[in-house]
Amino acid sequence: MDIRFEQAEARFEERIVLHPLTLSLTERRIGVIGLNGSGKTTFARMINGLVAPSAGRVVVNGFDTVKDGEKVRADVGFIFQNPQNQIILPILKEDIALGLKPRKLPKQAIEAAVNGILARFGIGHLAGRRAHELSGGELQLAALASVLVTEPGILIMDEPTNQLDLKNRDLVERTIRGLDENIIVISHDLSLIADFDRVLLFHEGRLAADGLPGGIVARYREIAA
Ligand SMILES: Nc1ncnc2c1ncn2[C@@H]1O[C@H](COP(=O)(O)OP(=O)(O)OP(=O)(O)O)[C@@H](O)[C@H]1O
To answer: Which residues form the ABC transporter domain (predicted)?
Structure first.
């Protein structure tokens, strides 16, 4: 994974939400923390080009997120804060197959990929279920499956354990820990990122601290106090 922010800034209607940021990310598991409204989601959305920089640029694996937006989005999977927004088609296995449609694979290959990804997350029994019937934890695992079936090189998750009860939170946390993919996780759940390779702390639209989880979480506690 090679993500570069080069003096990249984000503004919404003249208001700076992310001050110019220069940063290179190569670690496999990166956590992003900070108070509400500190700019975390905006930062994450800039990585897959959902938010275009108002100045500077963001380059992902050699591709500019604006000029080569399609290539970047094919390689950067994004799991939104509300997994309900992730599942578009009513039946889970149909929704997961949808992500593979652009590849024009034979029917059997699509079926094998869908069954394989559902099995990987232990939700094969939910294949024929309607998305709105799933519990919060099941929905989060389904969202993971729907994004990872396309094998993105980088996976971004925006508060993946936010709306979950303790049981589902543990399940989703364990699942995230078991992922082999390059991941960037925004989280208010500090235990989730406690053993990550690098943590970024945002505060008032600036990168306030950057390093190993222990020191950065301590700094966050000072800011929050
Ligand atoms: N599309 C938008 N238009 C206008 N303002 C926006 C937009 N998206 C975000 N903002 C503003 O930018 C600031 C940073 O928001 P952002 O969602 O990046 O923060 P965050 O750290 O992810 O917050 P949270 O932890 O609450 O999800 C906020 O003040 C927010 O209101």
So the answer is: 3-225
